[in-house]
Each structure stands twice: as structure tokens, then as C-alpha cells.
Amino acid sequence: LPDLTDEQIEKQIAFCVSKGWAMNVEWTDDPHPRNSYWELWGLPLFDVKDPGTVMFELKEARKACAAGYIRMNAFDASYGVESCVMSFIVNRPTSEPGFYLERTETSGRKLQYTIKSYSVQANPEGGRY
Q1: d(Cα 58, Cα 31) in Å, to the nearest integer?
Q2: Residue 5 contacts by C-beta under 8 Å, 6 or more apart in sequence?
């Protein structure tokens, strides 16, 4: 899919704000499908009535994390839901490194495959932040 334009992002944010959902911005350099713990950019934006405030935070995150992935989340705090109800990617790096399969031989001549990210390989633990 093509990237969302800023106008499309702002319309999504306006919809979320109209529903009373709290917005937050997250980023990561590891887009692995099982990486559900992204870094929170600032604090969640509770009780925001203006989509411009959320767009400002997004622009600041883009300046600081241009080489990473940035997503917007909308959180519905209403009783019975209390969870993330919308999440979408708003920024990707110009060059996406991709993934590779690591093969490991285990007991009984079994093979085990693990998906690993090239971005994590290039920036090992302790050197990523």
C-alpha cells in the first residue's frame, strides 16, 4: 500500500479525537512482526480536542526518528473496551532492510527457523538507543 499523506493521517486523527480516544505516537527500528513493544514518543495525548496537537507530536517524532518506523495508536478508555482500537504506520525509513531466516539444527535432526531483522543485526543490543 502507498504511504498515507499528512492530510490522510490528520483525517484519521480527527476521527479518533472525535470519538474521545487517547492518541499516542510510537517508534522503533525493529519492525519484526512479533515486536509489539515499540518506544513511546512522549506521553499519551489524553483529552486532546485538536488534531493539530497530535500532528505536532508526529512531526517532532519524524525529526528525531526519521530512520525508523513510526505508528499512531488510538486508545479507547471506555468501560468494557479499555484497549487499543486503531493503530497505523505513519512513517517508514527510505530503505527498509528486511528480514532473513536463521536455521538451527536441534535434537533429533530437526531444523528450527527464526526470522531475524537486518536492522537489529546492523545495530546490536546496547548500540541501538
Answers
A1: 18
A2: none
Please give the Cα distance from 75 to 61 (Å, whole number): 19
CA distance linking residue 49 with residue 88, whole number of Å: 20
Tell me the DSSP string of 59-85: HHHHHH-TTSEEEEEEEE-STTT-EEE
Tens digit of pLDDT for each residue in 44-72?
A: 999 889 999 999 999 999 999 888 899 99
**Residues 15-25: pLDDT tens digits?**
999 999 999 99
Q: Distance from first CA to last CA of the chain, Å, rounded?
A: 29
DSSP state of 106: -
Q: Cα separation of 27 and 62, whole Å?
A: 9
Residue whose C-alpha cell is 488534531: 51
Distance of CA 51 to the CA centre of its chain: 19
Q: Are 73 and 24 in contact (CB under 8 A)?
A: yes
